[in-house]
From TrEMBL:
<dbReference type="Pfam" id="PF01535">
    <property type="entry name" value="PPR"/>
</dbReference>
<feature type="repeat" description="PPR">
    <location>
        <begin position="92"/>
        <end position="126"/>
    </location>
</feature>
<dbReference type="InterPro" id="IPR046960">
    <property type="entry name" value="PPR_At4g14850-like_plant"/>
</dbReference>
<keyword id="KW-0677">Repeat</keyword>
<protein>
    <recommendedName>
        <fullName>Pentatricopeptide repeat-containing protein</fullName>
    </recommendedName>
</protein>
<dbReference type="InterPro" id="IPR011990">
    <property type="entry name" value="TPR-like_helical_dom_sf"/>
</dbReference>
<dbReference type="InterPro" id="IPR002885">
    <property type="entry name" value="PPR_rpt"/>
</dbReference>
Length: 143
């Protein structure tokens, strides 16, 4: 049901349904959590509390840290995403890329560049995300 709501761009309804699910004691799976975090980014008021609820649910279900980083990044909750990132025992290139993409989407190209510099093994997504950030910032020479 959540996927159907998200598909029709009813982000607020996705968040409301997720809240109802949690109140009813329904344990979300990884797909549900990914849909909810993605929907957070389309709500006018940044739903940082949703990212925290998703974080708690993901930890309870022992789900991947990539989902949590994505959740905080799409909600522009950079204090929490950085705190989570620091304590993550393993960071894949995908996790680094998601963090960097969050900064790019927020227009924080200096932070994105800093993350890029710390990625141990850069891939084409890493490079593409940084170039996209520079283009969005109007820095054609840097891109």
């Amino acid at each position: 049901m959540i996927m159907a709501l998200a598909k029709h761009r009813s982000a607020a309804e996705v968040v409301d349904l997720f809240r109802d699910m949690m109140a009813a004691g329904v344990t979300p799976n990884e797909v549900t959590l990914a849909v909810v975090t993605s929907s957070c980014s389309r709500i006018d008021i940044r739903a940082a509390w949703i990212a925290k609820v998703v974080h708690a649910a993901a930890a309870k279900c022992r789900l991947d840290g990539l989902l949590l980083v994505h959740g905080y990044a799409v909600c522009s909750n950079y204090d929490d995403v950085e705190a989570l990132f620091v304590v993550m025992p393993e960071k894949s290139t995908g996790t680094w890329n998601v963090l960097m993409k969050g900064y790019v989407k927020a227009g924080c190209i200096k932070s994105a560049r800093s993350i890029f510099g710390r990625i141990p093994e850069k891939d084409t997504v890493s490079w593409g995300t940084l170039i996209d950030g520079y283009l969005l910032a109007g820095s054609l020479e840097a891109a």
